[in-house]
Amino acid sequence: MNQFGHHFRLSIWGESHGPMVGITIDGVRPGIALAEEDFAADLARRRGGSTPGATPRREPDIPQIVSGLYRGHTTGAPLTLLFANTNTRSQDYANVVRHFRPSHADTVAYYKYGGFNDPRGGGHFSARLTVALVAAGVVAKKMLPEGVCFTTRLTEIGGCDDPQRFDEVLRHAAAELDSVGGIVECRVQGVPRGLGEPFFDSAESMIAHLLFAVPAVKGVEFGSGFAGARLRGSQNNDPVVDAAGTTSTNHAGGINGGITNGNELVVRAALKPTPSIAREQMTYNLDTQRVEPLTIRGRHDTCVALRGAVVVEAAVAIALANFHDA
Questions:
Q1: In the chain, which stretches have pLDDT less than 70?
Q2: Is 212 strand, coil or helix?
Q3: Tell me: the pLDDT tens digits for 88-123?
Q4: pTM for this structure?
Q5: How far is CA 194 from CA 53, 129, 210, 221, 261, in A?
Q6: Does the CA dihedral 196-199-205-210 come out positive or negative?
Q7: Which H or E run contains 139?
Q8: How far is the first Cα of the chain from the last one, in angstroms, to the nearest whole number?
């Protein structure tokens, strides 16, 4: 459903073009200093309108904290944050209610909910809801031990792994009314040893679960990941070099047997190209019962991975926060 977690539990709600989106977080430790300003940096990393290749839709994304906070500190009660939708253009989606956009959730949502789903901007399936996920990530980071440090970056856009050429790739795709995907790498230093509950709540399982809930994420790998499948054991193994469990290499990405081993946590997420492109596409129209040309209107990212990096980071932080009582 729309809930995730055990010790740090989320309930997310809202639609892209509804009045607001929001999230309720249960299991927040009491006494954590928290203010609206604490969310500003991460929300700015996700915000559209300023980054080349990102959607021109610009929302202020000022969090309204309506429960779980008193005199600047968390109370231990459920923490609820609201984000108003103030810059919607619902008319842009009038032509796609039953003329299904390729590679969107339009078709499955229509049939799963009998046509009662909100199609505007993707409704509840929209990446707009990740604003709430990023906010939860801010809180999750405050739940983690001191010294845990996140470094998140784009390692690839449209098949190009040279950051100096990223803008060129974006401009070329936009000029052709198209989009590109990307790979986000999140590295976390200072992760304590022993996080993870095998069998089904292993560290990888929890992180991957939440990452795959992020719209556009189609692949997740840890450490050497898929590349490790092409190595021999002698090449992929990580020799232990001291009593603390430090390893000379880190092909495991900081996790063994589903449990964090104290080395740097390394996870990558592959985000697909934005399916909303300005180029005309042929797709099924339920009203005419024919495959017909469709031009998608609206404001969309040339590459969702640009703003998705902070969402990936938030998802990793939230998953780790679920082990804080373990």
A1: 48-52, 56-57, 92, 325-326
A2: helix
A3: 777 767 788 899 999 999 999 999 999 999 998 889
A4: 0.95
A5: 40, 32, 20, 20, 6
A6: negative
A7: helix 130-143
A8: 24
